[in-house]
Amino acid sequence: MSSNPCGTCAACREIDEGRFVDLLEVDAASRTKVDDTRELLDNVQYAPTRGRYKVYLIDEVHMLSNHSFNALLKTLEEPPPHVKFLLATTDPQKLPVTVLSRCLQFSLKRLPAALIVERLKFIAAAENLAFEPAALALLARAAEGSMRDALSLLDQLIAFGGGAVDEVHARAMLGTIDRGHVGRLIDALSRADGAALLAEVRELDRGAPDYDRALAEVAALLQRIAIVQIVPEAAHQDEEFDAALLSRLAKAISPADAQLYYQIALGGRRDLNMAPEPRIGFEMTLLRMLAFRPDTAMQPARVERPAAAAQAGSPAAGSSAALGTAQSTVVPPPVHIDTDNWPAVVEAAGLSGMVRQLALNCVPGGFENSLLTLKLDQAASDRRTRPLEEKLVQGLSKYFGRDIRVTFEIADSALNSPARQRMIAEQDRIARATSAFEADPAVKGLRERFGADVDAASVKPTN
To answer: DSSP letter at 5?
Structure first.
């Protein structure tokens, strides 16, 4: 048994079949009590029966109680040479610092949709399943980075479609709308044809769709259009949308309109639950795209002339003369956010819970033209989800008094984020408190007289 399994020996086969005696899997969510942990660790001292190591895999370890962590910590401090512990968790922030400091952390990242599609193709081919690439692309996107969820969805689709792995059944099972509807909606937008747009919504409403997913499909197509506008050959690499459709819409819609429509679609999803009816919210989102469509004739005045005036040294007068009647569309000047000021911004924006944790694991990389770039700590990248991103954007937009966009860059190495600074400071406080406690004359006397030992996990700073 090594880090490179052969897959053929007895140990590999038994592990794969879930009957290897030296691999002990524990669900911490159902065994949170200290007695459960002590019972689990009773056999740690004994050598493995079959393998080189006895491996304890504790899933959802953050669910253990404080007393259970204290019991586990004693073994983690001085583990027997024949024992390995694997602690799996979706919320490492809940683990005590004393436990984290004794572990080597590996952050598992979400799989790209393209990689999930390739794996699904391999499995379908191995099982002699006929499939449509668009159906697998839908499953991969719905899995949101989880291969296990993608496999579950594939099993469901096989059962739902009676063995057929095609786009029609995939969309019906997932509740997504037909891409023909999406294409016709965007086509009507490109022609500024309000009547055709509303007629397509009426046609779409006959199927009682999930309008949140419908807006997600609209945003997905707009994103692909934006890519094709920059890289035209990407149209022929898309497995979900027709290449001819993407190429035609990429020419019919300006890059500025595509970006605007995309942002409005995202905003419409946030506002959908506040609409009188989902269809009304969906319809108003599309009408907003038409109503706020930029006047392409005014674009040079909005972008190029104010910049030239600013370079000339008279920004106020130059901007006013260049903009004419389009002053209300000027992008506000960039706001500088430095690293030291970021925790104060997070606090003032009223971010809380998981959104706050996501923000505090970031460091600002730049803020220009309403686009905020955040560098995200690699160790926290697995906590980034679309709902958290949307709440973060909503809170920051409210704080800055305007709609902003946020883009994330995953740091290649450990990032000196506010969360990491806080964790290091807390570890330092605990270490100093432990040293001070052990140096206390009364504690020394007890240790010398009775042979007592200090439980480091129980030491807590008083201030």
So the answer is: -
Residue 15 tokens read as: 């592990």
Contact 416, 366 (CB under 8 A): no
Residue 176, CA atoms < 13 Å, CB-side half-sphere = 24
What residues contact 119, with CB distance under 8 A and at least 6 apart? Answer: 147, 150
DSSP strands (E only) in 50-162: 54-59, 83-87
Cα distance between residue 215 and residue 443, in whole Å: 65
- Would you say residue 392 has pLDDT above 80? yes
Q: Give the whole-angstrom CA distance, residue 328 versus residue 342.
A: 29
pTM: 0.44
- Number of Cβ atoms within 10 Å of the Cβ of 247: 18
Angstrom distance (rounded) from CA 351 to CA 72: 34
The answer to whether 417 touches 362, Cβ cutoff 8 Å, is yes
Distance CA 325, CA 302 (A): 10
Give the model confidence (pLDDT) of 221-244 as tens digits: 999 999 999 888 888 877 667 788
Question: What are the phi and psi torsion angles at 272 (to 5°)?
Answer: -60, -40
Dist. CA 141–CA 129, nearest whole Å: 20
